[in-house]
Please model this.
Amino acid sequence: MSAVPAQTTLIATSPPGARLARRRARLIRERLIELVLFLAALVSVFTTVGIVYILVKESVAFFQHVPLVDFLTDTQWTPLFDDAHFGIMVLLSGTLTSSAVALCIAIPLGTIIAIYLAEFAPFRLREVAKPFLELLGGVPTIVYGYFALLFVTPLLQRIYPELPGFNLLSAGIVMGIMIIPYVSSISEDAMRAVPMSLREGSYAMGATRFQTAIKVVVPAAFSGIASAYILGISRAVGETMILAIAAGMQPNLTFNPLEPAATITAYIVQVALGDLPHGSIGYQTIFAAGLTLMLFTLVCNIGGHLLRKSFREAY
Amino acid sequence: MAAANPTQIRALIASHKRWDTIFALCGLLALMLGVLTFAALFLDMALDGGARLSWDFFTSYPSRRAGQAGILSAWVGSTLVMLTTAFFAVPLGVAAGVYLEEYAAKNWVTDIIEINITNLAGVPSIVYGLLALGLFVYQFGFGQSILSAGLTLALLILPVVIVATREAIRSIPQVIREGSYALGATQWQTVRYHILPYSSAGILTGVIIGMARAIGETAPIITIGALTFIAFLPPSPVQAEPPFLSFEWLFSPFTVMPIQMFNWTSRPEAAFLTNAAAAGFVLVFMTLAMNGLAIWLRYRLRRNLKW
Amino acid sequence: MKLWPIAAAALVAVPVVFPVQAQQRIVKIDGSSTVFPITEAVAEDFQKAKKQQVKVTVGISGTGGGFKKFCRGETDVSNASRPITAKEMQACAEEGIKYVELPVAFDALTVVINPKNTWIKELKVEELKKMWEPAAQGKVTTWKQVNPAWPDAPLKLFGAGSDSGTFDYFTDAINGKEKASRGDYTASEDDNVLVQGVSRDVNAIGYFGLAYYSENKDKLKAVPIVNKGGSRSVPPSLETVMDGTYQPLARPIFIYVSDKSMNKPEVREFIEYYLKNAGELVKEVGYVPLSAQHYSQALKNFSSKKLGTGFGGKNEVGVRVEELLAREAKL
Model:
């Protein structure tokens, strides 16, 4: 209480010059802080620039050997064999199929869980369940990979005996389970941020929790939920170890999850840590593949961004 | 609607209630599925490797003899790398998130930065490793050290921290900001005294998810030169003589838990596979502990939120 | 909040104030994961013998990654499951790195079948070629197609991934050309996975290092191989590899030491310890040791600084170690 009068007397009795100087100092400090924060945001841009630089530098060397048309249209990917083929569609099909399987699991389950935790679950259950779910995202991906190979695949083979030892389905399922926390945690945070007043209005109209959740809360939180989805998609496409271990290293142009296939990420790991001499064309293929993956996720992200912008609600 | 009779209305209400219960059940089942999978994984590893856990296992260095091999250098390395990662990722991520939400004008530059960040979340971790090799290890000269690993992983989890920070900040009602400005606070004062405290719970969510991912990463760490056999520890951060605090450990060679596990799973002797399961169990446990700490913090912070 | 700028400034000042590397005597090794178990065993015992005065660190970046670091002068020793290639030789020459090539063990590629497989008693290289050559892709899918006497059952193939030295050597030895292989087989980097695959399927056949077969003798059967132009079949074992009769699937694996590092006493002592004790240690980790004469000749090459590689930048199948050690080395 005594601080307030002291401050006002200070302001009242200090000469105008000092007041202005203080104001200016504060302005400068504000600007400085803004600059520091801006630089932090720029770090991500620099990271991208760095990544693009490496990928493009080596890819340029690669594309001098392999024509772009071949790269995009060849149906075989055997860059390390004597008879080399460089069709990126083969690896891309593996990535797309496994991501699709993973997202078929992660998005529905993640959203349902998020809605349940935000709207239905009692406080205790939520505080206990949420950490457990986040732990799913914390299991090392190698552990998931071996889990898929040694537990999920035999399980699936009992249902469908023809399933090969390496396949995209088990890898995709395990990947989906891994991504659930990404979707559910962030969606749930977004949903809980919707003000109670909106919900109360809905309940006052006689809606059930389910109706409120679907018709009021989810649309209100949609931009946050969409962020969560996009993060989940990015994670699925960029996942490496689970696919490297459980889906096999077999480049295979297929959209059938019941077959083994190599994804772009698994291929990159295989070669980067393998016995190939660095600087050979086989090694350069990983940069071309990485570049393709990056362009693909960029297109998806731009699409997602535009989608989110048109749906953002203000309240 | 005026013609609707009580029976019809009651039937409608009953049907809605039914859907409500069905959905609640579905939600619970979905939740159980997630929790059960984790339990299955954890139990699987505990059964396979639990017998191997002993004081020796935690205090021995790797060895060619499975019975004598331990994870000392691995868990110390993992802990130090996690500290470094958190040190870089949290301030950078939060600062970037705050900037994008509070300060940035809604123009195309901001759009590009946003798209850029979500794009980075999809880059495979090994590409970060290749970037870090060229940049941190060679260009900056940090060498194949804990510092390089920490920086690499910080870059890797930066998108997650930023996205979570933004979502947390976005969830704060505008009235809070308006109240603060109305009292004459500057933008930074608003952020520091109002926005950050209220959003810290959500920020912690992002940090938890990010760090949990970082502790389990293998490929980028191997690429920047983490070792698989190292039978000594980095120099201790706290020393007996002045200046009491040492940063030498940042530049020391190291190994981490996932690499140890990865190496052991590919060895032919069956005893190494038991070791790998035990190491995996410890790794998940370490993640649990790290998460537990952050979750407890978040719980405490969230309790105070009322709006 | 005020702590962050101070902490950040302190961290930035660290590289300036403190020395970059710990003041320890460290021998840095990196490279192939195939050679890793041997080097790890040597490093472990060496450190004990030296009472922790010298430290040894070993990485598994792969043979290619290992050479990259080696040719930049970052590592003292490079583990390699194949000889150094011409491109890598060039990279080393550009940086002024010279090296000694030292074979340290044999890795015998073992062809394995399921224990319930009754129709295979031995395999000729020509039969293996029919199964694995590029022309077989999509066409040779049953056992009967390889040899009419065998059952008409599906042929399930398991093998190494196409980026590994194992793959290069096998294709060179069996198909006659490095990296020439059919693509439709189950490939894996992790040989334990291949072990599982073959042991669970009666129609399976696969190849991987001897160590993985030795650990799983109860689940697999090793196939004796008849070399091209030979008449007797030779099973893979310590003896047959050491006396050179198991051909063509026995390959030497190497370490490369840089001449700059050889000036450091700890590196010299390490290599001497390596070559003196490899005979025992190699056996312990499941590989096949060279003969005592081989090791002493290698030690002589090392002491006399015989710089360069005897392979000329390309791999060769069926080279005898005594011949290799006697060859002229080129940088």
Q: What stands out?
A: The longest strand of chain B covers residues 229-230. The beta strands of chain B are 229-230. The CA atoms of residues 201 and 299 of chain B lie 8 Å apart.
